[in-house]
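Why does residue order matter? Because the sequence determines the fold. Keep that principle in mind as you read this record.
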Amino acid sequence: MQRLLRPKSIAVIGGGAWCVSVIEQAERFGFDGAIWPVHPTKAMVGGHGAFPSVADLPDAPDAAFVGVNRAATIGVVEDLSRIGTGGAVCFASGFSEAGAEDTDAASLQDQLVAAAGDMPILGPNCYGFINALDQALLWPDQHGCAPVDRGVAILTQSSNIAINLTMQQRALPIAYVITCGNMAQTSQAELALALLDDPRVTAIGLHVEGFGSLRGWEALAALAHERGVPLVALKVGASDRARQATISHTASLAGSDSGAQAFLNRLGIARVANLPDFLETLKLLHLNGPISGNGIASISCSGGEASLIADMAVGTGLTFPSLSHGQRASLRDALGPMVSLANPLDYHTYIWRDAPRMAQAWAAMTGEEIGMTLSIVDYPATDATDWTCTVDAAIAAKAMTGAPFGVVATLPELMPPETAEHLAANGVVPFHGLREALAAVDAVQSIEPPHKDPICLPGTASADTVLLEAEAKAALAAYGIDVPWNVATAPENMADTLPSLSGPFAVKGIGIAHKTEANAVRLNVAREDILSTAKDIGTPTVLIEEMVTDDVAEMLIGVVRDPAHGFVLTIGAGGVLTELVQDTVHLLLPVRATDVQAALYRLRCSALLDGYRGKPAANVAAVIDAVLAIQNYVLAHSDTVSEVEVNPLICTPTRAVAVDALIRKA
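Structure:
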């Protein structure tokens, strides 16, 4: 892979305009290696003498751009592989991406992979790559990259998005841009792994449409963490979840994106929602790396901006820690008695143009609880001469403290490129847009080490069997789930099956998927009313169980098989309002007790577990044990199980009891 991405010699196969452009772009970018065009009839291509075939090349090239039609591509790739080429970019389209229109497309892609053998290929249906560190590229179109000494790498399937990202003017040094198209042979994770061998890469951004090999991504996350290279993903599109039918609350709550988010969380990869946030997050990681904690500080010369950033931070994971005694003393010394001290801080304009005092005030807004300090400055497009003091103050504050520091323009266009470059050169992050800055800081502060345990990969057998509730409870009870006494019986046999229990009881119809909606669940039934209640429900058999009456909270614990991401564990508020409340956290199996505990306290309903408005606290340890027991069942049946749900899990001061359960399996 290194020969392909850092070539000393390149071959360009084909003579069309795209191939000529590849040669021109390489020369314009400063590539000083050998360029060998290949064309069967043309003597010259792009100003270079052409060789009639791959076999006629003077040596095996490090990298080749294959710019011929899809049918010819397969033969050319086979020839390149045979002579030992370092790797190839397959430009042609009409392979697997055209499968809906062309039944031969998928077969052609399989032939291409076979032709490549051990030779790495990018694509098909992609532009190739730009290596701005070594001024080497195979790229058939214009781009905005410039040579750099170090910078971030960007990987995407979309060549058009790649072009647009290279055109950014946000003081972000881009070291590599790689497009991978159909990823017929080489995945994004494999490419990113190769980039980790280049110490000049400071962060890697991944525009992800689908993960593919989950094990490959786990290996990438582990090595990236070991090398200290943070990863950020812009994950788009729905997953390949294959739910035959939604028969549980869990399946509807764990939507197509929940597995992807849980997978990224598990890998310790920051996630953003759009391209501007993607670029700003990469910039922050390049200049500063991951930040410690979620506390931020804001300083501006406008109360409006102070209010704006406070409001815009609502809904993120960011907080504004109160000023310490030391911070207040330093600020008072710099600003005088007329400024009200707070975080966010409106420092007015009393010290405007006095860069040393501005730097003192801005430096005072850093501290142990502050992961990032943001100075809000909008540079006028007319004449920004009087704003030079803000640049000097920011650079001085960064030098004085060494703390993470950024200058933020509320609107992206109010950060001039030359100002951004000057700030970045001195270690200050120039943020283009206030919303984008908050999104970047929020994404970066969430980066954690990847989970050490590999995820459990599910089986693929069709899950065509739904266990009856009593069967599901018995199966889970064998793995440690606490279930109430229950018996399934026909109403006419009820007298022979009821023990000497006083009740109250729950009576449920058997064979109905959504019992509550069908009025097939009756609660608080007295012993003497069980028979009449069972007859009123009307199913041939009913489930009678003793009710749990000392509940503190109702939880939902569910697992669904997600072919794209593994087994998704959903923990959330349970009971009849589950889908209405939608208070859930999603994890991937396997989990540890500490993971479950942390997830429980991320829920809005977690206050109930600790005792709310005079009610006793729940036995949280029992809740955690219940989740782990469900996990143990799933892991033991991972080749066949598709869905497991306990809803509700009744949480009491002493127990966590599964009063309803569902299992769907092969």
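Residues 238-247 have pLDDT under 50 and may be disordered.
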